[in-house]
Fold each of these.
Amino acid sequence: MDIDFWFEFGSTYSYPAAMRVEELASQAGVGIHWRPFLLGAIFREQGLSDSPFNLYPAKGRYMWHDLERTCRALGIPFQRPSQFPRNGLLAARVACRFDKEAWLPDFVRAVYRANFVDDADIAGASVVGRCIADAGAQPEEVLAQAQSPESKAKLRAQTDDAMRLGIFGAPTVVVGEELFWGNDRLEDALGRAASRSG
Amino acid sequence: MDIDFWFEFGSTYSYPAAMRVEELASQAGVGIHWRPFLLGAIFREQGLSDSPFNLYPAKGRYMWHDLERTCRALGIPFQRPSQFPRNGLLAARVACRFDKEAWLPDFVRAVYRANFVDDADIAGASVVGRCIADAGAQPEEVLAQAQSPESKAKLRAQTDDAMRLGIFGAPTVVVGEELFWGNDRLEDALGRAASRSG
């Protein structure tokens, strides 16, 4: 059984999960549907004006320490971004429009590395374009298509889907109808998917 | 090095952590300081009028499913309480006043079982008294001492300490000055404490 990997480019714990999910899924013999969505829209629906990590400073301080500790334990490079959360809208439109392309996983990881290793502003077309090129696709063409009305509508609809599924944070892996929230649940989710494939 | 195990009797993920911490700490050769506190006071300080699991229904629905799944995987019995969160004030006063007694860990587990297995209202003296008796202590004497002005002040001061340490949720294990939040981080916390003991 395949998994749906729901992620947000600005989300901190989505970073280690996105860096690991393809290799772990491959080891488990499980396919991935990449599902970018806009976590900010879901927070607004809940009445939150910002990331809970900014609204609740103690929680935010803990998260940065825990994320650094988590990445170190997993052997994943990490540098705390100077801005949080970064605006992942353009990158999410690209990932949503081109979600089945062979270059998509490389693009996703390139954007996360830009945000969480290089401290680059992923909101702009220059950084996103560089990530597209790094993944082996054509930046101009991809960026133009990602900003078409159809692409914008597709990402909005996908974010609505996330809400309907009961998603409230990122990353979330959905296996059938079961949710697994957080980088901490990635292995459990893949184990569940693998057991349902047999 | 010892750990500080910060817990709240109403807190859902504190339940599996409290049921496991003594055995895991013993295996790791680590001592435990039991630190009950009032999570509601910390939520109020953050401007929250209730548990986030009640304020954000999608998060709450997920938590109940995840907690059930977690307890099943750990072999810990679980029945969803008909009321959430339950008021753990009296039980916390007992645990705070008698935190170094040999019967304390049994009392803590008895209260959690009452809440999360027997669906009993832990707010009242009858249930808390039964838990004290189950742990081998004298309910009348313990309850009277737990409700003295000194005992009430001790729990308030301990909750203030939790805030000063940056604690924002339960359970939290503190090793030196490092925080590990959640049942998911219990093993990591004990591993850190064991490595600092050597």
Amino acid sequence: MLKTELCDLVGIEYPIFQGGMARISDGKLAAAVSEAGGLGIVSAASGDVEQIAGEMDIAAKLTSKPIGVNIMLRGSNIDEIAAMIAEKKPAVVTTGAGSPEKYMDMWKSAGIKVIPVAASAAYAKLFERAGADAVIAEGGESGGHIGELTTMALVPQVCDAVSIPVIAAGGIADGRGAAAALMLGACGIQVGTRFLLAEECSISRVYKDKLIKANDTSTVVTGRRLGHPVRSLKSKFSREYSRIEYTSISDEELEQFAVGSLGAAVTGDENHGCFLAGQISGIVNKEQPAAEIIREIFEQAEALLTGGTKWVK
Amino acid sequence: MLKTELCDLVGIEYPIFQGGMARISDGKLAAAVSEAGGLGIVSAASGDVEQIAGEMDIAAKLTSKPIGVNIMLRGSNIDEIAAMIAEKKPAVVTTGAGSPEKYMDMWKSAGIKVIPVAASAAYAKLFERAGADAVIAEGGESGGHIGELTTMALVPQVCDAVSIPVIAAGGIADGRGAAAALMLGACGIQVGTRFLLAEECSISRVYKDKLIKANDTSTVVTGRRLGHPVRSLKSKFSREYSRIEYTSISDEELEQFAVGSLGAAVTGDENHGCFLAGQISGIVNKEQPAAEIIREIFEQAEALLTGGTKWVK
């Protein structure tokens, strides 16, 4: 079995995190991933403390294995959510959209591992200095909110910049990506897009079918003008957004245009949905139990890693 | 030593191509790379048949090993350049900006291996059907003209789409990238940015020093509006271009603004130069002979590939 230091750090069997996907990563999905030996992560993006706590409780009821929670450090009630997390003591908190420095002591003294997402080497260094236990180096090929650097370029540069463990994210959906991530210096992977097709993932049939049909060029980035680029599957929404993005429309109107689009994707509204997904969508073609996804990824990675000597003559 | 099927296909010792960089990849650089066991590639981007033939002759005088030439299939005298190439019979021609179908028979009957750059799985399939001997899957983290897909996402999807050998390009500058590329399914790599710091590369001191100082976030993409995005190091030129790109400036004026910027970079004009380089620039910090660059990359890759079993328990 494939083991890295990340397994020991977090107490998991396979070095894989399931990405905290806004409005998607609920307690049921997270529990399925954790129960299968990875780290399931509940998304705190709704901003509703009761709802997030509820999903964490659902996960805890379904598995006794470690669970994580992902919080975007932007919004009105982050303090409240952060305090709830400190109380609930998940194994891991992953953070996005800024530095978790403010909550570091509170979380760490609750025994929680703090693992921020870093989109550059400078951010990774900042998080290491602030006490992070590891960092997730996430490339811009991933779905959802993205940075500029790609996984191939970002991971080695983050590894050179910090001494804490690095988890690679972005463009990884099978054992090839997992093995490549280890070669780049990472000690584990975070996977989002492929878990959208987990049987335990509650998104609409429309969303899953769009993903199954997608190929390598099916995603597009919108939102660059407002400074928060987002990658999603090409759709009626993305076409319309792209059409108006660089017109004379005001920032407020453009912002308003996207309101509700994530929820619409989850419930299967093809007219208004923004269906977040990464560039690796083309190899994500089959609905499977989360446990089977994890097993397949690591069987393939293990075969590639043990076969790596075939090129050395 | 690390060997793959690409070595046999092209007749080289190490599975590495030096990217055909416009106005940079001359006969001297190509010869140094080929003499060291990789495939040196002369750029035909100048469009000047005499000049390109001259550089190919220089390379042939400096080494008896295989040499390649890179042609962008856009411009007024492509037929003429293509015919000259068929006559000179380099070991390999790599192509960009379109399909080489038109020249395929001419080149192949001259014994030249034809290896197009593909920015998507669909293009890779098209090139395979047209008779290409291999394809280069180049991710958008590379320097110069770029596509949308990243190396991590593109390489496995191209590998799934075609049966011919796949060479990975974009974001690769050391043995970590080379080993990762093999895990993704490639049988070799193409490297551009790191060869900018080859001692045999004739770009200005200013260009080399900018690259040495660069970190992971030092590059920027300009030209998206005109449909031909280009990645370069942040500079006076790129700042000014970005400032005007989405203003009311006409396409013609915007195009005109960039004329001469590549040449200016090569000669070291900090005010007007567009210094092409990839996102991996942050780990490219040392001027070295091309032979040392190649040796370092493959020593590191070999160590990683033979050590890959350490994770399997």
